[in-house]
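Note to self: the last two entries modelled the partners one at a time, which told us nothing about the interface. This time every component goes in together.
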Amino acid sequence: MTETFIHLLSYLEPVLCAMLIVFLVRSKAAREYIYLVALLSVRLACSAICLPLIYFCSRGIEQHLAYRAYFYVYWTSYALEAILSLMVIYSIFKLAMVPLKGLQTLGMLVFRWVAAISVAVAIGVAVTPHISKLKFMVAMVTQLQQTSSILTLCLLLFVGFAIRPMGLSFRSRIFGISLGMGFMATISLVDAAWISHNAEMYSTLNIVNGIADCIALLAWSAYFAFPEPKRRFIVLPTTSPFLRWNQISLALGDDPGFVAIGGIPPDVFAPAELEVMRRASSKMPVSIDSATALHSRSA
Amino acid sequence: MKNIVRAFIVVLAVTGAAASTQISSASSSNATTTVSATIAKTSALPIPTCAPDDPNACGMAGK
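The predicted structure of the combined assembly is written out below.
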């Protein structure tokens, strides 16, 4: 009974993935959410390979061979999904912060550093003495996926609480994708805690995962099936920290000006420039004298 | 509505944070066992928790 339900959900997932890709293309949002399309395509391709392997296991393909192929396809696609999830979060953050260019630039810089450090930590944690390639791959993918899940939840918290200054609403696709990703990230972290107590190929965990995945895919489909409301006109108070930090971040990216401070031969200047400087310097003592005279008169 | 959605987001984040603390302890306790997988895809696909050369093919053929 459990296995039948797992198989049913396994077949439903690629159908929903394909439906969502169709909605993305039809709503002309595929280019804007290109990493989401790539993520869904990887999931679809993984299901397209894995489901026949499960079906034909002991029905035409020798089960050890089928399991070996299944193992590598599953973990390779998982690694790709972890990387693409990071890119989806990155692109969502970029889209969400479009009205606040300064914060967008600063946030993306921070995000790139965090992502690079996360990947380095994932590799570092996976590398231990006398480790096999297989264990290295599983450990690295595990660490990368956990990092990606935590970053996704951070993004969801940010989008959920800073939705008004970004001119978004709960019907915006950016929020919908963040919510779906956040939901899947939470389930993924719960899985990781659960799997250590129940490491079987077919278990209740698959049903929970399958249902969560279908809910997220259906929610995304609804967001892309209907037209998105336009971004609201943003009015922020002048004391808003978003506005203040945006101005600071914009100033941080400015090209610096240059000042000549000494050692400049007079022949580098044009005659007109020299004349201006001569007149200015001839006026300076006069103005200083007049200022002193004014000061003494007022005293 | 706004508060309900925000409360849901906070619940998701807190659940994720609580689960991640359990992962750390689970991973360290698994270091000496033979279980290699400590995470699974958010998908109904069966999870290959055994090594690829498992003599029972991890029970892939089902019961």
